[in-house]
Amino acid sequence: MTLRSAIFSVLAAVSSAATVWAGGSGLNVVVVVNQNSTNSMQLANAYCEQRCVPPQNVLRVTYHWSGGSIYCAEDEFQNELCTPLFAMMAERGLTNQMDFVLLSMDIPYCVEGTNGINGTTSALFYGFKPDTNPPAGLPISCSLPDDSFNSYAFSELPFAEGAPDTAATNSFLAVMLTDSNGLAGAELILERGVASDSSFPAQPVYLEKTSDTGRSVRFYEFDNAVFETRVHGGYAMDRVASDSISFTNLLGIETGKSDFELPTNGYVPGAIADNLTSFGGYLLADSGQTPLLAFLDAGATGSYGTVVEPCNYPQKFPNPLDYFYQARGFCLAEAYYQSIQNPYQGVMVGEPLSAPFAQRGEGIWNEPPAGAVLAGAVNLQLEFLAAADNLPLSQVDLFVDGTWLATITNLPPAAGDVVSVTVNGFSNSYVVPAHATLASVAAGLADVLNSGSNSALVSATVYGDRIELQSMNPALPGASVTLSANTTHGDALPATFLTPALPTFLDTIATGYHNLLVSNPPTVGDWLQLEVEETNGNKVTLSVTNANSGATIGQFLQKLFDDVNSTPALQLSNGVYAGDFDDESPSGYADFNLYAQSPGWAAAAIQVTLNASSDLEFMAPATSQLQDNLSDLEPRNHLYVTSGALSLPVNSTLDTTQLQDGYHELTAVAYEGTSVRTQTQVSRQVRVQNSGLSASLNTLVGGSNTDVGATLQFSVTVNTNNIKAIQLFSTGGLLGVVSNQAPAYFSVAGANLGIGLHPFYAVVTGNANNQYRTATTWIELIGPEPEFTISASYPPLTLYWSCTAGRAYNVLMATNILGPFQTAASLTPSNSAGVWIDTNGYAAERFYRVEASY
Q1: How many domains are contained in the chain?
Q2: What is the per-residue pLDDT across 364-422, written as a single tens digit (0 to 9) for each?
Q3: In 3D, which of 22, 23, 104 has the Cα closest to residue 57?
Q4: Are residues 497 and 450 part of one domain?
Q5: Are residues 800 and 778 in the same domain?
Q6: Residue 804, domain CATH
Q7: Which strands, in side-by-side order, build the sheet including 636-643?
Q8: Per-residue model confidence as pLDDT tens digits over 249-260
Q9: Per the confidence metrics, is the pTM higher than 0.85?
Q10: Do residue 162 and residue 289 come from a single domain?
Q11: DSSP letter string over 96-140?
């Protein structure tokens, strides 16, 4: 079948399409490929290329799953995914390097066990979690097992420090990359994720409360997330009350509906969006509800949903703090997993490394120069510069060919440093002990702030490297509560810093509320009385009496609810209104929230008293202010503990005798001195030569572009015959071994690697166990033929084109461009240079066409 063709007349040529390249970081990602799916292979190859994932980080799985791409049994999950994954990392020395697992489509998204169903990504995150006994009358999946608690949630710790303590083995930030539009859709998600990095989008996030009360239970968490994001800064986060999902140009949304349609341009790159509903995680099966993939089709970069009926436990779904974590610079997978307390029934889909607010520094590599030939002990000289004054760089690691080798610089919090914080003129200090971490310094300082007389009237809560401060003095607005911090450095090299988010505390925009819950079926004559004392001292009393012998508690309480909202004296700015009515009469109760008419802490000082007849029960105490959400009302600020330096020089010695001779890529990675640990990378290509051994990899069949259906052929030549083994490596690791001979020849079926860009290199082991690594050859395995350009020279007439090695081409000729073309020649180039010489002479004008075919 003809795929692409180019027409040549005289010396005219068709222009070729431009290639756009993107980059990223994948040193800590394992990419899992379903080797039985060409789409999985092609997507994985694209991911490795765009995220610079080293070839040894790819795991190929050949198992045929019992449930196809939908489900697998728990023993299949353990034996055919987990066991190979752990073995691969151990064999390749990657166990302590990997934090992320990317499942490249066509891999089961749920795991079925004898006691429950888990999402595959969640099972990789912290192991399969069986269900326990649910509340009476509910499915077993409506339980909330203690073992399913995610200790990483809300930790604001680097994943290596905060991995879930309920994981029996290695834990991974696992994400699946797939889409309802197949490979093309998944590749778009990947492209959006890469494009989002450090893009600092200004679009808003919407936290949506719909009329579906059962699916909108997360609205109680909205105010806290809005407050945190306002203190930190970065972008707008808005609460909205709506049943519409047709918003456009958003950075994210959290909503609660069972079924809806989304616009195609709903979200910008980096957006995370999800819905609290039962079956959002049904990716490829029809549940009657909108699957999470709809958000990705609408432009989001990540989403989350459950694969089995979860009941509406908010703990099983993302908390809106995921957007605050994203604003801090955490990547998509970190932000999502930190926001879900019990993710075991969920599946996470998207591009895990997307980090729109990551602030990357700058790296300068001074010595050795690029292409240098190294021997013995070599001096490494680099310098890293921080992206901002509050984001010092604390650590530098050296990777060789994508594998961690050593930590060459580390500046943790310095013992003897004194961190001090002053709130409204009251100061407290903490001395950094030996072996401290950012989190331990934050915890120690918070203990000091919370102890003693606490004259400043603030409370301190620790989240990783962040201390959240709340003012407990209702007489002071936030703008009147000042905050400053400083560090006295006890070491010659300062390494500990304390930074306030704002110079004064920030006042809330939340509205205070109090929940009124009444239980037991009412009898005739039962009564409820509500007294509201407004902030100006006015009192309003409402009473309802039940006159209906068949009334439910919900119907009775509804009367009080309606009276609140129809009483004119309560509708003024210092009054109240009723909302969020929830009729749970079958369970014996009903409730609603009583809100202040105005936002802010002062407005929430309204006092309400509920009384009822003796056979009705209500939540104690009888008298309360509208401050059930007190922590969302108190003025707030943040303190951040950091360590490192704004300019971080690196002077280290590399013992090249510990490396294979030959060609290597050295990568230095500097980490931000915060819990976010954003990476800044700089690389050098060098050659090590400590012995006389040398070798080269030669491509016999194959070029820079090669037909994916071709069989690549390589030879490895060595400058000695004293050879123990020659190994060929590419994407996924070892491809073949030849023992006790040189030169060696290898054949590689392109179809086993899949469409995409692949590195090839050989490692030669001599009889003395010395080794040499050849230079890397990069080959793009091509599916459909891209456009190509034809050029010509004369005499004799010779056609040239950039071709795909291993693919058949037909040269067609005609004397009239409108007439039929006849085949003049067929050829299959073995490299990327197509050449054909016309030996027929030139009796008349001729036109030529070159076409690729299968």
Answers
A1: 6
A2: 999 999 999 999 999 999 999 999 999 999 999 999 999 999 999 999 999 999 999 99
A3: 104
A4: yes
A5: no
A6: 2.60.40
A7: 458-463, 466-471, 636-643, 496-500
A8: 999 999 999 999
A9: yes
A10: yes
A11: TT--EEEEESSS-SEEEETTEEEEHHHHHHH------PPSTTS-G
